[in-house]
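Students often ask why inverse folding is considered easier than folding. One informal answer: many sequences map to the same fold, so there is more than one right answer. In these notes we will look at a single instance of the problem. The structure comes first.
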C-alpha cells in the first residue's frame, strides 16, 4: 500500500448499516370496528425507530463499493518481487546503433521507450523519476517528476541520434545523484556494454542480431578529356556486416537527381569499393545510396560536397627570395604579387595573404592573414635569444603534414616567446623558432630564420611545407574542411567585417554564430547529412556546404559476442522490477458494483 489515511473512511460502513436498520415512521389510520384492538401491540412495535438487521443486497453492494473506494485511495500495488523506491533514474541510450531494428515491428530505441514506459507505470505514485539520455554526453530530460503522464510523454518524445556513444557518460551523473539518496533504483537501457563501477543499477541489454550494409563514404576527383571537358570520378566504400555475400545496387545522386546506378557484390564481413566514372555534374551535393533494405537505414547514404576552387591573392614583400617565390608560383590556385616596398602595402588593395620577408610594416592591412619570415624584433613578436649554427626540426602539427620530425640546419636563427594562442611548428630543442595560430580572427605564422641562411630551401620537404602553410593561411572559404563526422566541433572562418554566420542543419534548423568565431565552435552536428553556412560580406551573400557523415566505424557493425558476454540483465528479461499499480483495476470493480446496485434497485422497485 502507498497510502494508509483512507482507512479513516471505514466509519462510513456503520452509517450505511444504520440506514438499513432505521424504520420508516408509521402512519395512523382511523377504524370504526373494535375488532382491531388486538393489533394495538403490533402498532406499538411499528412505531419503534429501529428494526432487526435483515439481509439486503443493496446494502451489501453499497458497503462493497465503499470498501473498494477506500482500497483504491490506498494505491495498492503488486511488488513482483521488487522493492519500492522513492527515487528512480532511467537512462536511455540514444546513440546511432539504437536505430537498428530490434524485431520486425520496432527498433531498439522504440523497444527501450516501451519498456521504460511500462516501468514508469509500475512505480508507486510518490516515486520521483529522473530521465537521462546518453550518447557522447549525458543529458537530463526530466528531474524528480512524479506525474506519470508527463514522464510517459517525455519518453515518447525521445528520438535516436546519429551520434556515436553509449550510456557510459551517464554513469558518473547517476552516481552523483545516488550519493544524495538513501535508497534508489537506476535502470540503463542500452545495446552496448557499460561499466557501472560501484553504482547499483539494472542494465537492460537491447542488443539484437541484425543484418546491415553501410555506405561508409564517397569521394570524387575531376578528370579532363582531350577536348578539355571535365567529368567526375566518384569512389565509394561499402561494408557488409552479414555472414553472406550481398549483391546490391548503389544509386548516385547529384543535387537529388539520379545520375548513375552501379551493381556491386560485397563479400561477407568485408568491404568493396564502387566506382562511378564519367559523371557529368556541376552542382553542389553528391549522394550515394544503397538500394538494399537492411536493419539500419541511417548508414545507407553517404554525402560529398563539390567545392568550386576560388583563386586567392597573395602579396610577397621581399628584397629577393627566389626559393619562396617559386614554391608559391607552382600553386595554380594562388595569384602571387611581389614588391620590395613596404609602402606598397596600402589599405585599398586587399590580399588574402601578406608575406613579409625580413621586414614588418608600421601599419598592418585591415584584412588578410600574415606570414613573417625572419622578422626583426619589436612589436608583438618577442625574440628571446639569437642562435647560430643550429639544427632545427619540424614538430608534428597540421601545417607540417608529411614533413614532421624532418631536421635541417641554419647558420643563424631566432628563438621566440610563443604567444598563448599559437603552436610551435619549428623548434631548436626546447626553443620555439617558428609558430602559427589564429588571433582576433586573423591567421598568423612566424618563421625565425632567413631561408638563404639554411639548407631548407634545397630540400624536397620545403615545397611541401609551403603548400601546407599556404593552405592553412588561405582557407578557400568559411569551412576549413568539407567532410566531418557526427559530433565533431567546427570552427568557421568568417570575415571580420561581415555579418553573423547562419548555419543550417539537415532538418532545416538554423543557428547563428558571431563572425570570425575563434573560441566558440559549432557543435550541433548530431545529424548525418548536408549542412550549409551563410554570411553576408559587402552586401553579397556567400554560402558554402559541407557533409557530416554517419559514424559507421563505431555504430554500424557491433561485436555481438562482446556485448552478450558483458550484459547485466539477460535478453529474456522482459520486465523491469518495480511493482504493478492496482488502482485502475479497483476503479473498474467500483463501476461494476455501482452498475449491479442500479440493476438490483430497478428490479426491486
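Output (designed amino acids):
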Amino acid at each position: 500500500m502507498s497510502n494508509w489515511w483512507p482507512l479513516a473512511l471505514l466509519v462510513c460502513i456503520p452509517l450505511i448499516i444504520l440506514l438499513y436498520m432505521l424504520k420508516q415512521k408509521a402512519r395512523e389510520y382511523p377504524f370504526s370496528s373494535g375488532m382491531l384492538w388486538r393489533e394495538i401491540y403490533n402498532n406499538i412495535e411499528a412505531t419503534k425507530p429501529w428494526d432487526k438487521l435483515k439481509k439486503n443486497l443493496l446494502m451489501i453492494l453499497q458497503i462493497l463499493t465503499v470498501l473498494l473506494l477506500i482500497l483504491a485511495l490506498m494505491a495498492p500495488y503488486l511488488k513482483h518481487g521488487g522493492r519500492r523506491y522513492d527515487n528512480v533514474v532511467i537512462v536511455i541510450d540514444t546513440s546511432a546503433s539504437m536505430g537498428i531494428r530490434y524485431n520486425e515491428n520496432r527498433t531498439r530505441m522504440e523497444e527501450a521507450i516501451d519498456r521504460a514506459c511500462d516501468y514508469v507505470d509500475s512505480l508507486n505514485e510518490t516515486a520521483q523519476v529522473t530521465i537521462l539520455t546518453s550518447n557522447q554526453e549525458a543529458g537530463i530530460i526530466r528531474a524528480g517528476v512524479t506525474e506519470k503522464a508527463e514522464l510517459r510523454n517525455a519518453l515518447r518524445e525521445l528520438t535516436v541520434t546519429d551520434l556515436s556513444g553509449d550510456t557510459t557518460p551517464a554513469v558518473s551523473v547517476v552516481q552523483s545523484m545516488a550519493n544524495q539518496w538513501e535508497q534508489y533504483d537506476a535502470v540503463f537501457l542500452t545495446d552496448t556494454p557499460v561499466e557501472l563501477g560501484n553504482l547499483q543499477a539494472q542494465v537492460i541489454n537491447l542488443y539484437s542480431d541484425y543484418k546491415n550494409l553501410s555506405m561508409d563514404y564517397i569521394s570524387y576527383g575531376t578528370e579532363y578529356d582531350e577536348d578539355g571537358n571535365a567529368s567526375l570520378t566518384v569512389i565509394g566504400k561499402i561494408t557488409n556486416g552479414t555472414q553472406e555475400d550481398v549483391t546490391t545496387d548503389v544509386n548516385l545522386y547529384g543535387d537529388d537527381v539520379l545520375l548513375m546506378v552501379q551493381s556491386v557484390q560485397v563479400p561477407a564481413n568485408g568491404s568493396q569499393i564502387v566506382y562511378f566514372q564519367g559523371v557529368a555534374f556541376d552542382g553542389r551535393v553528391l549522394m550515394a545510396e544503397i538500394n538494399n533494405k537492411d536493419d539500419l537505414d541511417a548508414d545507407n547514404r553517404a554525402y560529398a560536397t563539390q567545392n568550386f576552387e576560388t583563386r586567392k591573392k597573395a602579396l610577397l614583400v621581399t628584397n629577393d627570395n627566389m626559393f619562396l617565390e617559386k614554391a608559391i608560383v607552382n600553386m595554380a590556385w594562388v595569384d602571387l604579387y611581389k614588391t620590395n616596398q613596404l609602402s606598397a602595402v596600402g589599405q585599398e588593395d586587399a590580399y588574402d595573404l601578406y608575406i613579409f620577408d625580413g621586414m614588418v610594416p608600421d601599419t598592418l592591412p585591415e584584412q588578410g592573414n600574415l606570414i613573417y619570415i625572419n622578422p626583426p624584433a619589436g612589436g608583438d613578436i618577442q625574440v628571446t635569444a639569437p642562435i647560430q649554427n643550429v639544427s632545427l626540426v619540424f614538430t608534428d602539427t597540421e601545417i607540417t603534414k608529411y614533413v614532421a620530425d624532418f631536421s635541417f640546419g641554419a647558420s643563424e636563427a631566432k628563438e621566440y616567446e610563443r604567444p598563448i594562442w599559437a603552436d610551435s611548428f619549428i623548434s631548436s630543442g626546447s626553443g620555439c623558432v617558428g609558430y602559427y595560430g589564429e588571433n582576433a580572427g586573423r591567421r598568423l605564422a612566424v618563421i625565425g630564420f632567413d631561408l638563404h641562411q639554411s639548407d631548407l630551401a634545397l630540400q624536397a620537404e620545403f615545397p611541401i611545407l609551403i603548400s601546407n602553410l599556404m593552405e592553412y593561411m588561405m582557407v578557400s572559404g568559411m569551412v576549413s574542411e568539407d567532410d566531418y563526422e557526427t559530433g565533431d566541433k567546427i570552427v568557421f572562418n568568417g570575415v571580420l567585417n561581415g555579418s553573423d554566420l547562419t548555419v543550417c542543419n539537415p532538418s532545416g534548423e538554423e543557428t547563428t554564430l558571431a563572425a570570425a568565431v575563434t573560441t566558440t565552435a559549432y557543435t550541433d552536428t548530431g545529424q548525418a547529412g548536408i549542412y550549409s553556412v551563410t554570411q553576408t560580406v559587402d552586401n553579397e551573400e556567400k554560402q558554402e556546404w559541407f557533409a557530416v557523415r554517419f559514424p559507421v566505424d563505431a555504430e554500424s557493425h557491433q561485436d555481438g559476442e562482446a556485448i552478450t558476454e558483458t550484459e547485466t540483465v539477460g535478453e529474456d528479461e522482459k520486465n523491469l522490477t518495480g511493482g504493478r499499480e492496482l488502482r485502475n483495476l479497483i476503479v473498474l470493480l467500483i463501476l461494476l458494483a455501482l452498475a449491479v446496485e442500479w440493476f438490483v434497485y430497478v428490479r426491486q422497485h
